Predict the 3D structure of the following.
Amino acid sequence: MEFVIAHELPGRIRLRTPKGTFSKKNAPAVEALLESQRGVKRVRAAYLTGSILIYFEAPQRENVLSAAALLTEDYYDDEELEGLRGGAPQDSLKTSLVAMAARFVFRLMLPSPLRKTVNICRASSFVRRGLHSLLVVRKLDVSVLDASAIVSAILRSDFVSAGIIMTLISLGDLLESWTQRKSKEDLAQSLALRVDTVWVRRGGCDVETAFADLAVGDLVVVRAGSVIPVDGRVDEGEAVVNQSSMTGEPLGVVRKKGASVYAGTAVEEGMIVVETTALGNSTRISKIIEVVEESESRKASVQGRAEHLADSIVPFNFMLAGLIYLVTRNPMRASSALMVDYSCAIKLATPLAILASMREGIRRGVLIKGGKYIEALSDADTVVFDKTGTLTVAEPRVAKVIALNGFRGEDVLRLSACLEEHFPHSIAKAVVRRAEEDELHHAEEHADVEYAVAHGIASSLRGERVIIGSAHFVFEDEGIGLSEEDEKIIVEECAHYSLLYLAVGAKLAGIICIADPLRGEACEVVSALRAEGLEHLVMLTGDSRRAAENTAAQLGISELRSEMLPVDKAKYVRALAEKRRAVIMVGDGVNDSPALSAASVGVSMRSGADIAQEVANVVLLENGLGALIDARRISRGTMRKINRNYCFIVGTNTMLLLLGLGGFISPALSALLHNLSTVGASVYSLAPVLEGEM
């Protein structure tokens, strides 16, 4: 297998394989074959990114790399490995549970001597795990307690209790592993970039090529109306590119030779040839999936506290067991302190609740990058919104048409649409759409059009020169005069719009005001956030004060800051943090990234800039704000679930411990009830937080 080492730590290595090296159905076989190698502890293979994460015994590094190099498709695509592939993760879980139950029943039916031998063999793996924690890690943790409880039961010849303990521990491990795998699987499916073929220029000819066969340095041809499939530099041509997926801005920008372009942006007009600089594992999807694969480093503080508390309780179990033995000289009662502990359930239930909530978030269109952000979302008391592309749709619309110097409004719009319909950029489409809505039909009376990319259009009508475009094009390049009266109208009526100017002859005929309207769900989301206890809502924007006030008034947001630079937004968020505000910052552009980073929780949308998504702690996958409400509800519900689990675990295990010490229940029954309560807490942790699971 061809691979490169992407990242390495002692006992842990991540390999990167070329795109398409193994498929979804091959991934379990790749994992199983590598896990069968000496010294390999655990393997995770992500087929979409070509990532293979291997945990191994440090001295076996060279053996691990040799095994990976020798692993070819002939091995992992073998029909005999069909059983490893399975179907959906749900089916794998059902199969595993059924198999575990069948093995448990089968062991109970074995003759007593054979059942003892089987249990002793099974116990060896738990004992090794406990010895590793005790002797290598030098830590008295849950693994040591589990091993002690199993050995204690075996020494008392209570093989039934030992078997139950081992089965229930294995069940907990299975549930946690499945939840983590399912979270990553759902994420990969929801974010996958589905591009099949692209046009590549080779030897002066354009050839259609499979996207999987692209390489860095290839020249990709992208024409009007197409999405740019790679990150790269423009090698040839000129085009207007809609970079709303990168910057959140609704208007296209000119990309010429030497300029950078990014995957996921769209060519509105023109044609460019892009030299590929990044694809495959360097794309947005790979980076985000890696974030989730590494989410253990972003554990919630409540999860970290739970794990610390779980391990810190273990020594007291041993001390209590020793004290009971010294007082009663009864090994049966002393073993009760080992059979019942708080730590196992606490340590298992909390991370399962976090992982289950991350998975539920993905199903509802929101990627939460780690447990600490679930906790931060729950604790937040302030939401700060960017305006453009976040509260607004970043899709230009004609707000109004202002006729000047004797022209009629309908004539201004009709003539503008007649000129703009030849060019498929976003503002042109807005003008044509408005003319169609107003049922203004226009005949082709003008001469051939001249087009200056990103500036404007020039033509002639009945012997007069007609131009439409930006202020720079109309007033500076074309020299059209602007009277004081017209300038006053622009200041008073057009302050919070983008403007297109139409001139006929030497006169300014009219102004078309282009607005970026609110997202359809924006008002509802603002109201829902208030209902969720987030009363302090703020809007930040680089737009003018009047434009900001207009948007804020529609949303009912009273606090706003206008004409802000990116550094100003970040300073404002940090100032709120200094006032002990827990801030959710919602933005989608490059200019929002500093503020996203400064907030307690940074939230971006999938259509946002790559850097905004990278910096953000939460990504709304459906390019709308609605999932933000679900994120807040999931986070608050998760924290309630964790607190309820604490109460249940402490109450149940305290009762069992007292019953065991009093001799009212046997150690076997105590172990059974304790482990059943652990499984119950874990199952509750896996339950969806929101009603009506999708």
Q: What stands out?
A: The chain has 26 helices and 24 strands. Confidence is low (pLDDT under 50) at residues 82-91, 186-193, 283-289, 291-300. The longest strand covers residues 266-278.
